[in-house]
Amino acid sequence: MPTETFEFQVEARQLLQMMIHSIYSNKDVFLRELVSNASDALDKLRLEALRDDSLDADVSDLHIDIETDRQTRTLTVRDNGIGMSHDEVVQLIGTIANSGTAKFLRELKEAEGTTAAEGLIGQFGVGFYSSFMVADEVTLLTRRAGESQGTRWTSSGEGTYTIETVDSAPQGTAVTLRLKPEDVDDQLHDYVSPWKIREIVKRYSDFITWPVRMVPEAADGAEGADDAPREPETLNSMKALWARSRDEVTDDEYHELYKHISHDWSAPLETIRLQAEGTFEYQALLFIPSHAPQDLFMQGYQRGVQLYVKRVFIMDDCEALMPPYLRFVKGVVDAQDLSLNVSREILQQDRQIQLMHRRLAKKVLSTVKDMMSAEPERYATFWREFGRVLKEGLLSDFENREAILGVSSFATTHDKDEPTTLRQYVERMKDGQEHIFYLTGESRQAIENSPHMEAFRAKGVEVLLLTDPVDEVWVEAEPAFDGKQLRSVAKGEVDFGTEEEKKEAATEREGRQQEYAGLLGWMTERLSGTVKEVRLSSRLTVSPACIVSDTHDVTPALQNMYRAMGQDIPQVKRILELNPEHSLVSGLNRAHAERGEEDGAGLQETAELLHDLALLAEGGELGDPSRFVRLMADRLERTL
Ligand code: ADP
Fold first, then answer.
1. Is the pLDDT of residue 552 over 70?
2. Are residues 176 and 278 in the same domain?
3. What per-residue confidence (pLDDT) applies to 565?
4. Histidine kinase/HSP90-like ATPase domain: from which residue to which, for each copy (predicted)?
5. pTM score, two decimals?
6. 92 C-alpha to center of ligand 1: Å?
7. Which atom of ligand 1 is nearest to the CA of 77?
8. What confidence tier does 114 reach under pLDDT thresholds 50, 70, 90?
9. In sequence order, what E strands does 2-92 have?
10. Which ligand 1 atom is nearest residue 128's CA?
11. Which of these three, 323, 355, 380, is where a domain ends?
């Protein structure tokens, strides 16, 4: 068979260069990566054999063998799993399909030489390529189960690799590393030493559910040594961590399992265990990662919970087990009473699975809640990484809405750096304040400068500043926390203060109302094309006017979002509020009373300008900007 030579894709080449120059301080992990791939290959074969009776494959003795040879300085990791076809080898081993990897490489380049670079590297698993940390040549011989021919792949990691079709190869994959000469005499990196192999497998791969065996090397040079029995020694306990009692398992062991499942090399932020007994028995071992993956908000993001049935791996990315807003949770759920043949469709409809889903979601939320009170710093990390995705649950998970609000944090006028929880907000509420106030907007600065905030600032009433796009949506449902409704400061009437203050304000308003009744009626009529009402405001202290939405109306930002999604929704008219303390407003009132209808055009234009100024102040877009400019220039000219 001819040997073909291929070039590595650019990203793959960069990654390999990094491996060759050993960017990881701990080289031992290459073995963990190879064993992890081998274990996945065995899982895949067992599943495929289960689903396809006609598959011509031997599944009677699935295992992983590690062989070393001191003479040739080689180490081989061999599995009799699913294997790869010729095309799969080219595709899976020669390129990096994962878009997250490309992004990682870019970030790494930018951070080169800084301490940030080390942090980045630590978070990133590179699987098979990590072999090049310890090897100057790697050969992979593989045959896909059910196929007759095999494929041999060889590379020294320097830009090209060769591929050759071979007639006879055992089912599965064998990866052979020719170890770098400098490592062999170095006790720490002596990867042909049984002692070293035993130690690494025990440390990183003990939980692997397949036997990981070491095949003893033939004794050096001794005649006839090959005839001596060479019984392989099983190195791992194969005990599923979730089935062992809690105090038997160390944090390190949990973390290794996490790495195996998540391909994330940094330790998880939190480990969660759940044991359900009774009619539907299951065990769950879940992890909250310590950082959000790059593609969390991309379409097709794979959720990280694996389903096992009685210790047998069934599927990755089991969406029936976790709601979408908890898609960052990784882990394993092992159910006792499901069929090994269970499909995704069946899972979606299964009542027991739905109950399990609910219980797992609640468990994750309660864990975050505990973290919030016991370990505020850890919680802060959680919120920074996953807050935005968690808030999606406020829209979709009605049952847990209050629980999600309870573990959420928000930027606040109370503190310019630290976000607040709703519990803390409620504790700071003023006498007579019934609602939790918020304002949504593009940025903290835009919100803080909005005219709607004036009276709140003057009275020292705290306002939450919501700037995530998702915030516009969930607040529409007007959720409550601890019996207090969340209210926008840009909607409806504002009333806060003690009973006495409220009474006082009402009396004052009544007096003002009579004084301004003429102007308000006239303006409401004149501006009826744009607003539904003109009224006096109790939320302004310095601005002449602002525009607010009616209590239950959809905000302009949300209207825009709906339109961007292609929905045809009618323009909702809002309310123009005037500040009677402002001399422009009181002057307009006087002018209207004196000249009334006689000076129609001039007063009308001023009324329009007042509206447009209010719109600009909240960052809105004018309906007719050129008319605004003309009217404004005209008035400025008169001041010269
Ligand atoms: P990862 O395991 O993170 O996907 P790797 O570079 O380690 O990345 O492997 C790339 C792909 O190559 C794997 O996803 C798998 O499909 C395939 N692969 C690697 N090792 C084996 C193996 N021993 N048997 C079968 N397929 C394998």
1. yes
2. no
3. 81
4. 26-183
5. 0.79
6. 7
7. 23
8. low
9. 3-7, 64-69, 74-79
10. 7
11. 380
CA distance 310 to 325: 28
Q: Which domain holds residue 552?
A: 509-639
Residue 199 belongs to some domain of the structure: yes
Q: What is the pLDDT of residue 116?
A: 63
Task: Kindly state whether residues 212 and 254 are assigned to the same domain.
Answer: no
For residue 44, what pLDDT is reported?
Answer: 93
Which residues lie with the beta carbon below 6 Å from any ligand 1 atom? 33, 37-38, 41, 79, 81-84, 92-93, 127-129, 173, 263
Place of tokens 């069946």: 346
Nearest-CA residue for ligand 1 atom 8 is 127
Closest ligand 1 atom to 125 CA: 3
- Same-domain pairing of 187 and 253: no
Contacts with 383 (C-beta within 8 Å, 6 or more apart), sequence order: 408, 409, 419
145 part of a folded domain: yes
Same domain, 153 and 287: no
The predicted structure's pLDDT at residue 583: 95
Same domain, 144 and 10: yes
Sheet holding 545-548, edge to edge: 531-536, 574-578, 545-548
Q: 137 and 168: one domain? A: yes
Mutate to test the pocket of ligand 1, among 37, 133, 141, 205 (most ligand atoms within 8 A of CB): 37
Is the distance from CB of 179 to CB of 138 less than 8 angstroms? no
> Is 80 exceeded by the pLDDT of residue 290?
yes
Q: How far apart are CA 348 and CA 80, in angstroms?
A: 33
Same domain, 99 and 59: yes
CATH of the domain at 616: 1.20.120.790
Residue 258 belongs to a domain with what CATH number? 3.30.230.80
Q: Is the pLDDT of residue 539 over 80?
A: yes
Same domain, 128 and 272: no
Is 78 within the bounds of a domain?
yes
Q: How many residues does the chain have?
A: 640
Dihedral of the CA atoms 193, 197, 198, 201 (nearest 10)? Answer: 180
What mean pLDDT comes out for the span 182-204?
85
Q: What does the pLDDT read at residue 124?
A: 63
